[in-house]
Write a structure and sequence with these properties.
- The structure is a single chain.
- Helices cover 40% and strands 26% of the residues.
- With 290 residues, it is of the alpha+beta class.
- The protein has three domains: 2-60, Arc Repressor Mutant, subunit A (Orthogonal Bundle), CATH 1.10.10; 72-201, no CATH class; 208-287, Alpha-Beta Plaits (2-Layer Sandwich).
- The strands form four sheets. Strands 6-5-4-3-7 form a five-stranded antiparallel beta sheet. A four-stranded antiparallel beta sheet has the order 11-12-10-13. Strands 1-2 form a two-stranded antiparallel ribbon.
- Helix 7 runs antiparallel to helix 8 (114-129).
- The chain starts with a helix and ends with a helix.
């Protein structure tokens, strides 16, 4: 209802049919919302079946100031948010509020990198219309290749860095990094696996997956500082032990993210558990070409 109220408080009117389609609702429900707006004191301007909030409504000016940003205001806010450490909770919360208060496609253009904004807008449309897409030329770090992926996108992480998709090839829900997509192609096929769409956990190393794997390792002061700088959310799993040593006692979805960090700081980190993580690291070291 708040989103509809925000839309109606702009300069243009909207028909009942348009609002029902835009908000995936029935026309009867939209009529009920409009009646509620009237009861709470808003005046509705109805011009040939196109509704908007009358500017003469009580507190209209206060409402308009609250829920509308100019492009300049949005630009300043997004620049300020970008200065916050990547993926911190406060940054994500601020992005969520900015998305709600500012027109969604404009928010994408302001917040997402220019080269990715068109792909994000296409993915948003596919999610709304429940369509399958092809991520053309997706650069995968896990499989170390570049190829097309047929997917069902169904949600974004809060800062549009990743899109949640159901992968028909692996029959699982996973995240794909938006910056690694060359181009998004909308297919003519609708979702077929909606009941399997599932937002799984995302670990502090920004890797999503269905598994929860407990991991424990000790760090030097140097490794501790670097871990906090690169992955701020790791702080909740870190405690001081002794002699400028720190302990990471948390969980990950798989070993790819944490593995890159540990391999880069091998002389500053000691893995305690699990055994499978030690085996993963040893295998990576054996395969490494010097």
């Amino acid at each position: 209802m708040l989103e509809i109220l925000m839309k109606l408080s702009g300069s243009f009117g909207y028909s009942i049919k348009q609002l029902a389609e835009d908000f995936d609702s029935s026309e009867r429900t939209i009529y009920r919302y409009l009646t509620t707006f009237k009861k709470t004191g808003f005046l509705l301007d109805n011009h040939n079946g196109y509704f908007k909030i009358d500017k003469k409504s009580p507190d209209y000016n206060d409402l308009s100031k609250l829920i509308h940003f100019s492009e300049e205001e949005a630009h300043i806010l997004s620049k300020a948010i970008h200065l916050i450490d990547d993926e911190s909770k406060f940054k994500n919360d601020l992005y969520e509020k900015l998305y709600v208060l500012f027109d969604s496609d404009k928010a994408v253009n302001k917040i997402v990198r220019k080269e990715s904004s068109e792909n994000v807008i296409r993915l948003k449309g596919a999610i709304k219309n429940k369509e399958q897409v092809i991520l053309q030329g997706y650069r995968s770090s896990n499989s170390d290749n570049i190829r097309d992926r047929l997917l069902e996108p169904f949600d974004f992480t809060s800062s549009y860095n990743y899109v949640w998709c159901y992968d028909m090839e692996t029959k699982s829900s996973k995240t794909f990094k938006v910056a690694r997509i060359k181009e998004v192609k909308i297919t003519d096929k609708k979702w077929r696996n909606e009941k399997h769409h599932k937002r799984n956990g995302i670990d502090v190393f920004r890797i999503g997956g269905e598994k929860i794997i407990p991991v424990k390792f000790s760090l030097s002061l140097m490794a501790y500082n670097l871990l906090l700088e690169e992955y701020p959310l790791s702080e909740k799993f870190l405690t001081k032990s002794k002699d400028n040593k720190y302990l990471f006692d948390g969980w990950v979805c798989d070993f790819n993210g944490i593995g890159r960090f540990v391999l880069g700081m091998m002389d500053q980190v000691e893995v305690i558990s699990p055994k499978s993580f030690k085996e993963y690291l040893n295998d990576k070291i054996k395969r490494k070409k010097f």
